[in-house]
Amino acid sequence: MAEVLLSARQLTKRFGGLAAVNDVTLDLWRDRIHAVIGPNGAGKSTLTNLLSGDLRPTAGQVQLGSRDVTGWSPEKISRAGLGRSYQKTNIFLPFTVWENVRLAAQSRLPQAARWLRLAASVGEVNTRAERALELAGLQPRREAIAGTISHGEQRQLEIAMTLATQPQVLLLDEPLAGMGTVEAERMVELLLRLKKDHAMLLVEHDMDAVFALADHLTVMVNGQVIASGTPQEVRADAGVQSAYLGEEEAHG
Ligand SMILES: Nc1ncnc2c1ncn2[C@@H]1O[C@H](COP(=O)(O)OP(=O)(O)OP(=O)(O)O)[C@@H](O)[C@H]1O
Description:
InterPro entries: AAA+_ATPase, ABC_AA/LPS_Transport, ABC_transporter-like_ATP-bd, BCA_ABC_TP_C, P-loop_NTPase
GO cellular component, one term: plasma membrane
Distance between the termini: 38 Å
Bound molecules: adenosine-5'-triphosphate
Radius of gyration: 18 Å
Keywords: ATP-binding, Cell membrane, Membrane, Nucleotide-binding, Transport
Helix content: 25-40%
Domain ABC transporter: 6-247
Organism: Caenimonas sedimenti
C-alpha cells in the first residue's frame, strides 16, 4: 500500500459567487506523480495555492503527513515538508546558481532561530544545497550567473531551490512551460528521478509529458473533479474525452 504524504479533503475555494475549487478530494503518495489536468480556468492553480497555504480554503482540510495544516502560512507549511515551485520565478538573476540554491536551503531555518543557529548550521545548509544541486543535475552550472543560463536551466534551478528546503511533498506548477523539445525531455527525466522518495503534484499542460510521467491523473473542469484514476482509466473515460481530451485533440 503506497504511503499517503498529503491528503486534501473536500476542498472548496469561493471567490464571490464563483467556486474556483469545488469539493475536491485527492491524495499524494510517496514515489508517485499525481498529475492534475484541465482546461484554462479549471481551478488547478487555485488548488495548488490551497495545498501550499498561499490561499485559505473556504471549506475542507489539508493534511500533511500526520498534521492538519489547514490555514497554516506558506512558510510554516514549507517547514513542515511541502515544497512548491512557482510559475513566476523566484530566482535572483544577478546571483550564481549555487548562491540561489544556498539561499533557498537557508530559508528553511525558522526566522527567529536563524542568527542563533547560523554558525552551527553552515555545514548543514551547504550539504543540503549540494544535494539539491546534484539532484537537479545543475552541478556543472554552479558558478554560472542565474540570469545568463537558459530558460530550461532556470526551471531546473527553481526545482533545485525547492529541493533545497528538503520537502517530502513537491507541488510543481507547469515545470515544462515555454520549453523546447530537448529541454522538455530533460525535465521529464529530472521529474522521474525526483519521484523517488517524494510525493509529487504536477500541474502541466503538455499532455505528452503528463502521460509519460503520471502514475495517477485527476481531471478538473470548472473547479470540480470529473475523473481520477490511472492514466489508462482516465484516457478511456467518455466524460473526459468529450469535456477535455477530445477537445484538445480536435484543436490539434
Ligand atoms: N484571486 C482570484 N479572484 C477571483 N477569481 C479568481 C482568482 N483566482 C482565480 N480565479 C478564478 O478561478 C477560476 C480558476 O482559476 P485557476 O487560475 O485556478 O485555473 P487554472 O486551471 O489554473 O487555469 P490555467 O490553466 O489558465 O492556469 C477562474 O475562473 C479564475 O478566473
